[in-house]
Amino acid sequence: MIFLCCWLQVPVKETCGGEENKWDYKHVDGLLMEEERQGATFVLPLAAIIETGNHIAQATKNHYECAQELVRIIG
Predict the structure, then answer these.
(1) Per-residue pLDDT tens for 34-64?
(2) What is the superkingdom listed in this entry's lineage (predicted)?
């Protein structure tokens, strides 16, 4: 669920995928907003939340801001 790191813009994890299929905040946000508009229910596996927290903890900057955003999302 690396897209979660892209969506939260975790330093060094802001993008994923190759040049022909690049994922970044704008791409992920657009997909999620479209799904939300269609009434989708989002389910985040606990492992994805833990791993995202690990990536945030290992980030070189913006730990607090990214952690707050993760809490807001799962809150």
Answers:
(1) 999 999 999 999 999 999 999 999 998 999 9
(2) Bacteria
Q: Are 66 and 8 in contact (CB under 8 A)?
A: yes
Nearest CA to 56 out of 44, 64, 46 is that of 64
| Res. 2 pLDDT band, cuts 50 70 90 | confident
Write down the mean pLDDT value for the chain: 93
CB 28 within 8 A of CB 8: no
Burial per residue of 20-45, b for 16 or more beta-carbon CB atoms within 10 angstroms, e otherwise: eeebeeebbeeeeeeeeeeeeeeeee
Amino acid (1-letter code) at residue 34: E
Structure tokens at 32: 């999620």
Query: Residue ranges per domain, the chain?
Result: 3-74
